[in-house]
Amino acid sequence: MLTSRWGGWLCLDFANIVEARAAAAPEEHLHTYGELLWWGADTGVLDEERAARLGELADAKPRAAAAALDRAIHLREGVFRTFHHAARALPPPADDLAAIHDRYADGIRHAELDWTREPPAWTWADAHLDQPAWAVAASAVELATHGPLHRVKTCAAEEGCAGLFVDTTKNNSRRWCEMEGCGNEVKFRRQTDRRRAARRRQPPRAR
């Protein structure tokens, strides 16, 4: 199971679960509801007790859990396309906005406002199989309405990454999802191309 933290925003990290989206064969890392729960627990969306309760509920209602996974994946793809468009200053597709809106509205219908938190926050008292998706949708709405939307970018790697992230650098200069990954690959490729070009420019050696 892939868990990226370089997106800088929960909804973007969820969208980035698919690896190498722009490649010929993207790699899916979310196959079961159990993996969705693992992601939720690993990212802090679910505490240990809630993850365990949802796991028991999924075991008792496997068809419902499979349907919740399908809804989460549908939301994930809507989140990716919405913010991929935003990164290019383009309006997102209406269907993708609807996917975010539907899950967000559903989550709010089941939520309670916990005033004991600082600041107050929406919480879900009852275990519900859609809770991980609700948290992602809430994150997407927050990023779109109050977050640094103008800082959302797509990884500049030319061969398939398409990962989304929020650029938090002071001069807005970040270009890659991870410097240790795509950034180094791009720099290595450019260095190799420069060396090849330099060799082509050299005059042939006299025999």
UniProtKB/TrEMBL annotation:
- Which InterPro entries has this protein been placed in? ABATE, ABATE_dom_sf, Znf_CGNR
Q: Where is this region: Disordered?
A: 188-207
Where is the sequence biased in composition, kind Basic residues?
196-207
Annotated Pfam families: ABATE, zf-CGNR
Q: Which residues form a coiled coil?
A: none
SUPFAM superfamilies membership? Jann2411-like
Stretches assigned to the Zinc finger CGNR domain: 151-195
Q: Which PANTHER family match?
A: BLL6575 PROTEIN
List the protein's name.
Zinc finger CGNR domain-containing protein
Species this protein is from: Phytohabitans houttuyneae
